[in-house]
Amino acid sequence: MAEIKGALLQWADTPEGSYGEGVSRPKSGSRTKEYRLIVYPKGAKPLTWITRAENKAAAIKYAKNRWPSSEVELA
To answer: 18 has which bridge partners?
Structure first.
C-alpha cells in the first residue's frame, strides 16, 4: 500500500477486514432495520451476527467487509 501523508482515512483496511462508517456499519443518521445474519468463517464455528442496516444487501455487504473470507446468509 502506498504511503499516505497528511490524509485522514475514514475507514481501516486490514487483512482481517474493512471497518468504518458506510463500510462495515451504516452511516450515522441512516434509516435502518435490524437484521440477523449467519456468518461462516473459514476454520471456525458459524456465528449469528445481529446488525442494523438500510436493507438486506447492505447487511450482507457489512458482514462480508468484516469477515472477507466468510460465507454470509440471512437468518
So the answer is: 13
Q: Which domain holds residue 74?
A: 32-75
Question: Strands 11-14 and 17-20, how do they pair?
Answer: antiparallel
> Has residue 51 been placed in a domain?
yes
| Count of domains observed in the chain | 1
pTM attached to this predicted model: 0.73
Name, in order, each residue with C-beta under 8 angstroms of 21's C-beta and a sequence gap of 6 or more: 10, 11, 27, 28
Examine residue 7 and state whether it is found in any structural domain, yes or no: no
Coil, strand or helix at 22? coil
- Residue at 41 is within a domain: yes
Tell me the per-residue pLDDT of 33-75, one tens digit each, with 9 for 90 and over: 999 999 999 889 999 999 999 999 999 999 999 999 899 999 9
